Amino acid sequence: MSDKELEGKWDQTKGKAKEEFGKLTNDKSKEAEGKTDQIKGKIEEGIGEAKRKIKNTFDDK
């Protein structure tokens, strides 16, 4: 797993915590921020995974 993938997973976890905190405190802004962090994390994780797969493809040859 690459650093970018780990960073993406961390952002997803952090985003979920923010979203839940926003729900508990009825803070729609914090809830939306958490959802945004989760989306950002999924994108980062996908980019990291794609980079790793490309690198592995060329390293194997």
From TrEMBL:
Domain CsbD-like: from-to ranges: 5-55
A Pfam cross-reference name: CsbD
Transmembrane segments: none
Region (Disordered): 1-39
Domain of life: Bacteria
Family named by the database record: Belongs to the UPF0337 (CsbD) family.
Protein's UniProt name: CsbD-like protein
